[in-house]
Amino acid sequence: MTDSSLASLQDRRVLVAEDEYMIAEEIVEALVDAGAVVLGPVSTVGEALDLLVAENEIHGALLDVNLVGRTIWPVVDVLLARGVPMVLATGYEASAIPPVYIHLPRCEKPVGIRDLTRAIARQIAKLK
């Protein structure tokens, strides 16, 4: 995927949390094509939390809101505390997102992989 809007992903470490294997693989491929280093993908909240403990340097995160029936909020809290930009991917309506997280960028499913990739690229670019 050659797209100048993705330049901010070059050499950036991006966490991917997605429990649908095929979607996760497509996201990973798009991020790698854009020059990112992918952390994961992980498919559970526990795996995501373990990865956060193991990894000090994370530049961004693409997070499915519901991983195997558990919401991603504990992971979001850690990322917010670290100042890591993120994009939520969800099939939930905005009203289902807790008010404390409503300000976070969100892509509603079904969403194209390019749209997700561009969304995290925009969030990372804001920090450069």
Automatic annotation (TrEMBL):
Keywords: Phosphoprotein. InterPro entries: CheY-like_superfamily, Sig_transdc_resp-reg_receiver. Residues 13-124 form the Response regulatory domain. The modification 4-aspartylphosphate is found at D64. The keyword Ligase does not apply. This is Response regulator.
